[in-house]
Amino acid sequence: MTRIENRQAALCLSDQELCAAVGFDREIVWTMIKSGNMRLPLRKIPELARTLSFEAGPLLRAAMDETSPGLLQLIKDVFDPLELTECEQRLVKHLRHLAGDKATGPIVFDGKGVIALIAV
Fold first, then answer.
1. How far, CA to CA in Å, does 32 sit from each of 28, 48, 108, 109?
2. Are 12 and 56 part of one and the same domain?
3. Whole-prediction pTM
């Protein structure tokens, strides 16, 4: 929570402004979250991340690790590897953009640092 509060302060966002951006009806909700009396609803993570210019994935993982560690572990087990590096994320997004609606498959030439995109 300290990281979130530090970013809020750095962006000069009041609690009222943050609540409005995230979609909380009342400022008391954010006050309760900051004090630890209420957990941040997971469905609000994307809005909070956008508002504070954070990546939503790590924020969601941290919240889930606190609220539902068993579920987080299950997701990691099923979707291994769950975490992609920033470079890997850019590569996947670029691949999807280039492929459009076509089925694709990357071909990696071992040891050469070359990846070809095959769209069929």
1. 6, 16, 50, 53
2. yes
3. 0.67
